[in-house]
Specification:
The complex is a heterodimer of chains A (about 675) and B (about 625).
Chain A (H helix, E strand, L loop, with lengths): L1 H4 L8 E7 L3 H12 L4 E4 L11 E2 L1 H17 L16 E5 L7 E8 L24 H18 L6 H28 L1 H4 L6 H6 L3 H6 L6 E2 L5 E2 L3 H9 L7 E3 L2 E6 L2 E4 L4 H6 L5 H15 L5 H4 L7 H7 L4 H11 L8 H14 L8 E4 L5 H12 L3 E3 L4 E7 L4 E7 L4 E10 L14 E10 L13 E5 L9 E6 L11 E8 L4 H12 L22 E11 L14 E4 L9 H14 L27 H19 L2 H22 L6
Parallel strand pairs in A: 1-2, 1-15, 2-12, 9-17, 15-21
Antiparallel strand pairs in A: 3-6, 4-13, 5-20, 7-11, 8-11, 9-10, 13-14, 14-15, 16-19, 16-20, 17-18, 18-19
Helix pairs in contact in A: 2-16, 2-18, 3-20, 4-20, 5-20, 13-14, 13-15
Chain B lengths: L9 H31 L5 H13 L4 H17 L2 H21 L4 H13 L5 H14 L4 H14 L3 H14 L4 H14 L22 H17 L4 H11 L8 E7 L4 E10 L6 E5 L2 E3 L3 E3 L7 E7 L12 E7 L4 E7 L5 E5 L2 H4 L11 H17 L4 H14 L5 H14 L4 H23 L3 E3 L19 E3 L13 H5 L5 E2 L11 H6 L11 H5 L5 E3 L19 E3 L22 E3 L11 H8 L5 E3 L1
Parallel strand pairs in B: 10-11, 11-12, 13-14, 14-15, 15-16
Antiparallel strand pairs in B: 1-2, 1-9, 2-6, 3-4, 3-7, 5-6, 7-8
Classes of the chains: A alpha+beta (about 675), B alpha/beta (about 625).
Chain lengths: ~675, ~625
């Protein structure tokens, strides 16, 4: 927590780099800069790390949803003039946006039963507010909701109030810890209702249960996987950041053909074991894949198709329709229109990633993707970077002469000088943009009661590629996470759907959801039929939203001082290569002569002051010591625990009313 | 630069590492010395365990230390209660586990572990199985672990069914795994044996002991198909497939008894090489056991499929007498009769190669429809992978199993492709092809019911199945690439019936220089028999135009009259020494051999072979 305590004091007034936003790209830049000795101030206006890359507990997500709603209402409120006094002559002010408008069209539906209010189950639940409808909860939550508002708002929060608030909540946490446990023990009782056969009942997961087990969820805002030979994995290894996280292999790749979910044979072992392919198909597929591995060596095979789509090339290769679908949609993961060479490259990339860590080309970080930016933040902090959440920049101070940013004024009204300013796209005001038309990503997050393709093991992480349902519909990518990925509670699956938007997220994805899952016609109603009778998994809870895809933007898209570097948000592709490459190019722009994320040294190889043969200048020692202390303290307490803290506090406060209302007593 | 973390230089690190290593070495050596001293002092105490543990955990491959440990443990065992012993050995198992992490292929560790389990009062086999699974998960071909696992499975009585599932799992995760495939081949016959055919009274039970019932066999074919269609270059599945196709054991029997009045000699052929003196061979002539001395065709062999004996002089020479002969193989409770009728110079009784389906039996699957289906699958694969050697070879084997003569042409074409795609093994393919051609020729000869064996101009590189040629009177081996007449050739000679080695017409043979260098006994025999056949038995061996250097196999061929060895590689007179034993040899053609350059060759030859009257040099 130590770096947060900085909030109470003034920050140092000078940094080499000020970075605003803790998404993946910004965090990588922060780590890279800090690693080579730059002083880094890393800020985020939110009360959690990772921005749109964040992962939330279920309860944390509900708060995030609320925050999204509230923010829309607060939009106009802006405290101007505060900084006027800090501006010298020859300086210009360029304000930043206080509102994050990268999320839109958010819709939430709950289908899990709320068993203690049987007659009210049909209440439709749009957006999060009615989800745990009781006004009671709103009231009890009062204090924390307020705090949230201030977190998201652009006003400088009274640091005293904040720390009080924190203390307050911490106290409550400890108070509540015990009753909530005893509550859990009683759990099985309320679930059983006399009408239902007992077996079925045990399987049923109620909304209460989701809330109670909310901390077991880590729900990502972006849905991505890590290519095991992608830029992100390479960087994690190269920089030694990988030691801060754990990963699991995606265990299978599925596809949906003719409404049926089936496994895509992509590795040698898969092809061998596949029951759906004939032996000749097996040979054709293996032959084709082997060719793709080094297709550059055989230009004669594809040069006639260089101007033609990959799909035609596949047809020409005499692959059966079956195999064409597998290769196009699930292995290359490209569209019907993608050109041959690009398709071959995508296939090759997929194949090269196979077998490095397992039977599929992908890894997934335990506890969700939100871990990754935090790992880089931690790396940054270890090397002396300073972190402040709920702390933003109001405006940039631009030198009129050079048209460069020379300082920023933070949300507490402090002027901090810097030589570079790195900022996430969502902080940029529309005035600084050349265009405000964006692509969008459509997302859906589902909590379901079982896998779309049950198998021997119920602990599978699956990537499901869903070819376009119609000619105009987008190809949808779905990731189904099991509880051992530490992203959902046992007995449930967390499903992410993702596609490039053509309409709102719900318009784009609801057809796919209803094709693959059992979605009751009326929200709140339980899925018809028993667990065993249903052929599809039941949706317990679903959220749709659109996220702005700013990845098409480049320097020319903004009119900003030359030492301001904009980091665009997550793109819609499956890997994170785009964001990592962007971070690398920004870093090289900042520090052209420095190595990008060289391996972090082993702790025993670091020479601490006094330990080493020569000391730095004496004036430096002091500040260096404090930073060292900070970073050491930082290491003891990882950023992940810190970041999860606000979320945990939320969950506690939300659980309070539920725990006190005794539905199960009868 | 400010704020940059200072790191020790590589030199500093190296120096530190070096010091560290030195310290370690010193500690290790002194501990080792202390242990050895303790051992020689006969001390068997806890301290010894502790010290050896320290040493072994850094280097688990010191057998002496493991031995010492066993001594100490055995000693401690006598001093303690069962529960304490259990604890002692359990901690030993934990320690071994740690050592295996250092070297998972340490002989000492695995051996010690096996030993500990035999000493453990209450061994926990489930745990051990789990350990094996973990270990094989890391390295699926760790044969130490496989070995250990077999012991564990045996001791703990894991069901065969479970073990089969275990192989399913391993093969599923990576089918390039000989160990699993092989394990499977040992499990299946136990789990799903082929039911013994009740209609075959003569078949001994062990003939089918390693066969699998057809239903399971079909499943296994499918499994193998999946593997080699997925990756046709992976040999594991192909080997397994060949095992599936089977290699039937031939029934043990006397396949032929031959008797000749003139030579007063009996020749007996067996279905496999035997040692006549030790298998209880008995000859009964007209109801009287004969005290005969068995000898094999060539003194080089201790075991041979062909054995000879001389009858007491005058016992069968009278053409007017009829004789009944029985050879008993007492060890196998089998025998064969042979009647020598009045006026006959010779007689024999046998099962021919066609009767025995001898050459089909390499693939023992009876159902030809199954084989036909397998052939189709392989042909399908060959269409996709025309260059795949495993596929080509398997097709050849299947074709031979189905119809060796009908597929001869295709087989030869496939052999040609094989030599092209896999030149490293072209000699192997040539030999295999020779073998099949000889088999085919034998079959043709049997069908034609003649005793003429003609194989000229077939690119033969080796001779085999010579025991099947016991009765052959004419042999033509001209224009091949034979490099020697192997000692087995003497089996033909043991036949008292005219072994007529017809004029061997030697055509030019391209000779492999490297082979010339290495081959000590190069002999090329080519027999062009046609003319002589018309003229009647001429008792001639023709082996022209080969690269023969040695004639070892021309040994005691009693009826051999003429040998033609034109254009061969006979360099030394000594190579002709075996001809001395061929008592009827009168004509010898050695033209075009390096030997003619030898000084005084003619006089040397006439001295060596005084009976040869017509010599061409």
């Amino acid at each position: 927590m130590c770096s947060f305590k900085m909030a109470a004091e003034d920050l140092p007034s000078q940094f080499d780099v000020v970075i605003l936003g803790t998404g993946l790209t910004e965090s990588v830049i922060a780590a890279a800069c800090s690693r080579v000795g730059q002083s880094v101030l890393h800020l985020d206006r939110r009360n959690y790390y990772a921005g749109n890359w964040a992962s939330f507990t279920f309860n944390g997500l509900l708060s995030w949803i609320e925050e999204y709603k509230n923010q829309q209402e607060v939009q106009i409120a802006e405290s101007e003039q505060v900084w006027r006094s800090l501006i010298d002559e020859g300086e210009d002010v360029m304000p930043l946006s206080s509102v994050d408008s990268s999320i839109s069209n958010l819709e939430v539906f709950c289908y899990a039963s709320e068993e203690e209010e049987k007659d009210e189950t049909k209440t439709p639940l749009t957006s999060c507010q009615p989800v745990n409808a009781e006004t009671e909860s709103e009231e009890t939550k009062g204090g924390s909701t307020e705090a949230q508002d201030t977190f998201t708002g652009d006003d400088a929060t009274e640091s005293n109030a904040e720390s009080q608030n924190e203390e307050h909540q911490e106290q409550r946490t400890s108070e509540i810890a015990e009753p909530s446990q005893s509550q859990e023990e009683k759990e099985p009782q309320p679930i059983s209702s006399p009408a239902d056969p007992p077996v079925e009942v045990e399987k049923k997961i109620t909304y209460q249960k989701l809330l109670k087990e909310g901390r077991r969820f880590n729900i990502d805002l972006v849905s991505k996987l890590m290519y095991s030979r992608g830029a992100l994995v390479d960087l994690l290894i190269k920089s030694n950041v990988s030691r801060y996280a754990e990963f699991k292999n995606i265990s299978r790749i599925l596809t949906c053909r003719n409404g049926k979910v089936e496994q895509v044979p992509c590795s040698r072992a898969d092809v061998f074991a596949s029951k759906q392919l004939t032996v000749v198909e097996k040979r054709m597929l293996m032959k084709f894949l082997t060719f793709c591995l080094d297709f550059e060596q055989h230009p004669e095979e594809f040069q006639d198709y260089s101007e033609k789509p990959f799909s035609e090339f596949l047809k020409n290769k005499k692959l059966t329709e079956n195999l064409q679908d597998f290769v196009l949609h699930s292995i290359a993961m490209v569209t019907q229109q993608t050109l041959t060479e690009e398709g071959l490259k995508a296939t090759q990339h997929f194949l090269r990633c196979l077998g490095r860590y397992g039977n599929t080309p992908f890894l997934f970080p335990l506890y969700g993707l939100g871990e990754i930016p935090q790992c880089f933040c931690r790396m940054c902090a270890v090397f002396g970077g300073i972190y402040c959440l709920r702390h933003s920049v109001q405006c940039l101070v631009v030198d009129k002469g050079s048209n460069k940013v020379k300082a920023v004024i933070d949300t507490r009204g402090q002027k901090i000088s810097c030589s570079h300013f790195v900022v996430e796209d969502s902080y940029i005001r529309d005035e600084q943009r050349q265009s405000t038309a964006y692509r969008q990503i459509s997302r859906a997050v589902l909590i379901t009661d079982r896998s779309v393709l049950p198998s021997e093991s119920d602990q599978q992480i699956s990537l499901v590629t869903i070819p376009p349902l119609g000619s105009s519909a987008p190809a949808v990518r779905m990731v189904e996470l099991c509880s051992s990925s530490m992203t959902c509670m046992p007995g449930t699956y967390l499903v992410h759907l993702n596609c490039s938007s053509s309409g709102t997220a719900q318009e784009d994805l609801a057809p796919v959801v209803s094709q693959l899952f059992d979605v009751p016609a009326i929200p709140g109603e339980e899925p018809s039929g028993g667990f065993e009778e249903r052929s599809k998994p039941a949706v317990l809870w679903v959220m749709y939203f659109n996220m702005r895809d700013t990845s098409a933007q480049d320097i020319s898209s903004y009119s900003l001082p030359s030492n301001v570097h904009v980091c665009t948000g997550p793109d819609s592709s499956l890997g994170s290569d785009y964001s990592i490459k962007l971070a690398e190019s920004v870093f090289h722009h900042l520090l052209p002569d420095e190595d990008f994320c060289p391996p972090a040294p082993n702790p025993e190889d670091i020479i601490y002051d006094g330990d080493g043969p020569q000391a730095e200048g004496s004036g430096f020692d002091e500040s260096n010591n404090t930073e060292e202390d900070k970073s050491q303290a930082e290491e003891e307490k990882s950023p992940s625990t810190e970041s999860s803290e606000p979320a945990e506090m939320d969950s506690v406060t939300q659980e309070t009313p539920l725990d006190t209302s005794p539905p199960s007593e009868e | 630069m400010h704020g940059r973390v200072k790191i020790k230089s590589t030199a500093q690190q190296e120096e530190e590492k070096r010091k560290e290593r030195e310290k370690k070495l010193k500690a290790f050596v002194s501990a080792r010395d202390a242990v050895l001293k303790k051992r020689s002092a006969g001390e068997q105490d806890e301290e010894a365990l502790h010290l050896t543990q320290l040493l072994l955990s850094s280097n688990p491959d010191i057998a002496t230390l493991w031995n010492y440990r066993r001594e100490v443990l055995l000693h401690l065992e006598t001093l303690r209660e069962t529960d304490e012993v259990q604890k002692l050995y359990e901690s030993e198992l934990l320690f071994i586990e740690a050592c295996l992490k250092v070297n998972p292929k340490s002989y000492g560790c695995w051996h010690h572990r096996t030993w500990v389990n035999t000493r453990l009062p209450r061994p926990d086999w489930t745990r051990e199985l789990g350990l094996c699974d973990r270990c094989l998960g890391l390295d699926e071909r760790n044969f130490h672990c496989w070995d250990y696992r077999r012991t564990v499975v045996k001791e703990s009585g894991v069901s065969v069914e479970q073990e089969l599932q275990f192989t399913d799992r391993l093969i599923g995760s990576n089918f390039s795994n000989y160990s699993s495939w092989h394990y499977r081949s040992t499990l299946l016959p136990r789990l799903r044996p082929q039911p013994a055919p009740d209609s075959a009274p003569c078949a001994s039970p062990q003939v089918h002991s390693h066969r699998v019932c057809e239903e399971q066999l079909l499943k296994e074919y499918e499994l193998a198909h999946n593997a080699f269609f997925t990756d046709p270059n992976d040999q594991s599945a192909w080997f397994y497939y060949r095992w599936l196709l089977g290699r039937a054991e031939r029934e043990e029997m006397i396949s032929c008894v031959y008797v000749s009045r003139e030579g007063e000699r009996v020749s007996v052929a067996f279905s496999k090489p035997v040692h006549a003196q030790s298998v209880g061979l008995m000859l009964v002539l007209d109801g009287q056991p004969q005290p005969v001395e068995w000898r094999c065709a060539h003194p080089r062999f201790r075991h041979s499929p062909v054995w000879l004996c001389d009858l007491p002089p005058g016992s069968i020479t009278d053409m007017s007498n009829e004789h009944n002969l029985t050879v008993h193989w007492t060890e196998k409770h089998t025998h064969r009769d042979c009647a020598l009728y009045t006026g006959c110079a010779e007689s024999w009784c046998r099962d021919s190669a066609t009767d025995q389906e001898l050459f089909r039996s390499e693939l023992s699957v009876e159902k030809s429809s199954v084989l036909q289906a397998e052939l189709q699958s392989c042909n399908q694969l060959l269409e996709l992978e025309p260059q795949n050697k495993w596929c080509l070879l398997t097709i050849i084997l299947l074709m031979r199993a189905l119809d060796p003569l009908g597929h001869e042409k295709e087989t030869l074409a496939h052999f040609q492709s094989l030599k092209e795609v896999d030149p490293m093994r072209s000699s192997y393919y040539s030999d295999l092809c020779s073998k099949f051609l000889i088999e085919n020729t034998i079959l043709k000869m049997e069908y034609a019911e003649v005793r003429v064996f003609s194989l000229s101009n077939k690119n033969l590189t080796t001779l085999c199945h010579l025991d099947q040629l016991l009765l052959v009177t004419h042999i033509n081996l001209s224009s091949n690439q034979l490099v020697r007449l192997p000692p087995q050739f003497a089996m033909l000679q043991c036949l008292e019936v005219s072994v007529i080695l017809e004029r061997i017409a030697f055509n030019a043979v391209t000779r492999n220089p490297s082979r010339k260098k290495n081959a000590i006994m190069l002999t090329t025999v080519a027999v062009s028999a046609q003319d002589q056949m018309k003229a009647g038995f001429s008792r001639v061996l023709e082996a022209d135009d080969n690269a023969i250097e040695s004639l070892e196999g021309l040994y005691h061929l009693p009826k051999l009259e003429e040998v033609s060895l034109k254009n061969n590689q006979i360099c030394k007179l000594s190579a002709l020494e075996s001809l001395v034993s061929c008592v009827k040899l009168t004509r010898l053609d050695l033209r075009g051999n390096p030997v003619h350059k030898t000084a005084n060759i003619e006089s040397e030859l006439s001295q060596l072979l005084p009976l040869v009257t017509a010599l061409s040099l």
